[in-house]
Amino acid sequence: MRVVVDLTKCEGYAQCAFLAPEAFRMVGDEALMFDPAPPDELQDKVLRAAAACPVQALQVDMADLPTPPPRAAVADGDDRLRREGRIVIVGASLAGLKAAEQLRADGFAGTLTMIGDEALEPYDRPPLSKQVQTGWAASADTSLPRRRDIGADWKLGVAATGLDLERNVVSLADGQEVGFDRLLIATGVRARPWFVPEEAGLDGVFTIRTRADAAGLRERLAAGPRRVLVIGSGFTGSEMASVCAELDIPVTVAEAGPAPLAGALGGVIGRIAAGIMREHGVDLRTEVRVESLQGEDGKLRRAVLSDGTTIEVDVAVVALGGIRNVEWLHDSGLAVGVWGVACDAGCRAFDANGLVTDDVFVAGDVARQPQPMFGYQFLAMEHWGNSVTQAEVAAHNMISTKTERWPHLEVSAFWSLQFGNNIKSVGVPPIADQIAITQGSVEKRQFVAAYGYKGRVVGAVSWNQGKWLDFYQQLIEQAAPFPPPYHLTDPPADGTPVPAEFPAMTYPGRDATVVVTGHDPSERRATLVRAARRR
């Protein structure tokens, strides 16, 4: 039995924890932890919990999805694609699986091929830095629930190495070629490794992205290391610091910026996060870089920091963000780069000339898409909920006529559980220029902050107050003025807007990425330029 909870929907009502406490539990006031693979004897309890969830955030293997009704008749071309077409999905993780399920739900009866570089069925990644590290769930038990039989030809453990758009063929590392009528790129991101290979190879240095990463790190934490060093304090780094504090393991966090979470939520919230870390005994060092990792006999022993100190550590967790998996597309002619694969609001990939391709679609962490609600800026959203909704839109559009296609207009949302606090956000806070506490109390660690950009609401973050975020999502969708001109429940002592204090944004388009060739206007083409690799 497999379970997953869409924690962007969960509002902490705790019905599941009352009905199946062996599988669900509350942490702090409203944060939910769940067992992704509860024993079969709990099936009745878990199904009752899923049915009782007020926001229907629980998904269980093939338990909560009715058989789709027959679709209305469509044009011959699309009907033929639905009955006999060949669809290939490269990326066998969350986005890939959700797209496959949506294809079958929409009546696709053709051949479906799933390609993944890991030799594992799709699994859920958020528990790897939470439930798995505290020992509440095993890394091997994080497989995603199957909400329907997708009837796919699985090619796992073999990476895609190339894409030929002239022949509509994907090349694989084992020499195979897979033809397609429609292709979905959902290759996601991988963890950014420590930049010195010899140091990254020391026994005790970890990234955390895959099941193998999580299992190895859990084994080391269970052994009781003298001290753990976490490099970077974004969401993954902060969650790992929280895990160490919960396990009573001494932990140092080295953050090159001014505060934890500052890149995602700004300096104002970052200072609050820093205070909470230190309250829980974390040795937080801001504006400090790790100069080197040093070992003895191949094992990590110490780290040298830019503040002149050397600390003795047995484990280092490198949490420096991700690298989008696009190298296999470099010679494909698609618009790809370090920022991902560019696509339109319907998830159709752009080629290097900025033209949409009707046969190639993109979804998940690897996609960079214009957001109509935010001035059509091209944004990449590396969040669980975005991967799900974007994959469903892409799958629907792959087999639909022009008039049936959907735009992907989902407001981005994410969550994090740290030090007993449930942190949730909607919108795109990093584009904001101002922030205001609009509800609750920072001192009590129960508040909501709204983000504004040029006088309109563009985001919100809640700290143990997730039930209010649906209201803020509506404000974002309606382009409501900032600060919100309403008398809100539980107003703060001071709701004056202040600068949000985000780091200066870097734009991939600031430097030239293409050259234009040809002389006649009808022959001119854009060719992507690959910059020399920087150390």
UniProtKB/TrEMBL annotation:
Pfam families reported for this sequence: Fer4_13, Pyr_redox_2, Reductase_C
InterPro entries xref list: FAD-oxidoreductase/Apoptosis, FAD/NAD-bd_sf, FAD/NAD-binding_dom, FAD/NAD-linked_Rdtase_dimer_sf, Reductase_C
Protein species of origin: Catellatospora coxensis
GO molecular function: oxidoreductase activity, acting on NAD(P)H
Needed cofactors: FAD
Keyword Chaperone recorded: no
Listed name of the protein: NADPH-dependent 2,4-dienoyl-CoA reductase/sulfur reductase-like enzyme
Entry keyword set: FAD, Flavoprotein, Oxidoreductase
One GO CC annotation: cytoplasm
The Reductase C-terminal domain, residue ranges: 414-491
